[in-house]
Design goal:
Length: about 325
């Protein structure tokens, strides 16, 4: 074996098709969340868009807990786009009302879900944060504003632990059954430089380890180590040599399955993934008898799955 194998053990946390979940954090959390959503799990993937630093992720949770709905006073305009400092550019729009509609539709669902979810899956990307100089608030996205608009600094592990001890207690008050799965994104923040990137990742790892020791409903999943130590080869990276490739994401997710899926869930997952692949198949010619047969067989399979798995009625 020309690799350093990360020892993944089955977790005491069991995710199944009755589990309600939310992912928050970096683009890696979007990768994992999208795979779960694509297999018809009950999950809301990054309701604020991609968030990189722990403070921005915490702020999004606090907004949901207080039932915050955004107004035009929460937006700013830059280069013809209306933006929110709490959201990624995915929510930005040339039309202010459309921007608000996108923000609030996702936020309303998040507010409703936060009190009943079973798992909150959080991926930290960097310990570096940007604070808006005019308000001293940490922003989730700089939206291409001049660097002079912000003050940049690095969080300590102690600061992260303090902030998350606070938010975990708050979440437990409204949802005593909530469990947390933390990970650190394997995506390298190369603009910080290799040394600063490594220090940043180390701070995030240390903070999560301290939280895991403090709370029995907090668990760490080693996505970072799987890429950096086990898949230690550039063939497992995308063309930018910073993000994991699709193959690497698939491998990480297979480890995630092993850790959190029991055999029955894994069996259902495999069946639904096959259906999803068939459903999203795009044939070259649709004006053929073969295509008509394909549509009919897909609909038959859909009805069979709904009869077999009643939870799918609202998801297929």
């Amino acid at each position: 074996m020309f690799t350093t194998k990360i020892d993944i053990k089955p977790s005491e946390f069991h995710i199944d098709y009755s589990s309600k979940m939310v992912t928050l954090g970096s683009c890696f959390s979007e990768n994992i969340g999208s795979k779960l959503k694509g297999a018809y799990f009950d999950i809301d993937v990054n309701p604020f868009g991609v968030l990189f630093n722990p403070i921005s992720i915490k702020q999004s949770l606090e907004l949901a807990l207080v039932g915050k709905m955004f107004t035009e006073h929460d937006l700013f305009q830059h280069n013809s786009l209306w933006n929110s400092f709490y959201h990624s550019s995915h929510f930005s729009d040339t039309d202010k009302d459309k921007c608000l509609a996108k923000i609030n539709s996702r936020l309303l669902n998040f507010i409703t879900r936060i009190k009943s979810i079973d798992y909150l899956i959080i991926t930290f990307g960097t310990a570096w944060v940007y604070k808006l100089s005019s308000t001293a608030n940490v922003v989730s996205n700089c939206h291409k504003l001049p660097a002079s608009t912000f003050e940049r600094y690095r969080l300590s592990a102690e600061e992260i632990v303090e902030q998350y001890t606070d938010i975990i207690h708050k979440l437990q008050l409204v949802n005593p059954n909530i469990k947390f799965i933390f990970s650190v994104s394997p995506v390298r923040h190369w603009k910080d430089g290799p040394t600063e990137n490594n220090i940043s990742k180390g701070i995030l790892l240390q903070a999560i380890q301290l939280l895991e020791k403090e709370f029995n409903n907090v668990l760490y999943f080693p996505a970072f180590e799987i890429v950096v130590d086990e898949l230690r080869d550039y063939r497992f990276y995308a063309s930018d040599m910073l993000h994991p490739s699709e193959l690497a994401v698939d491998y990480i997710f297979s480890n995630f399955q092993y850790a959190f899926f029991q055999s029955e869930t894994a069996s259902v997952y495999n069946e639904l993934v096959q259906y999803s692949k068939a459903l999203h198949h795009r044939p070259t010619h649709i004006d053929t008898p073969e295509y008509d047969k394909f549509i009919a067989s897909t609909e038959t399979k859909r009805n069979e799955l709904i009869n077999k798995f009643s939870f799918l009625k609202q998801r297929l």
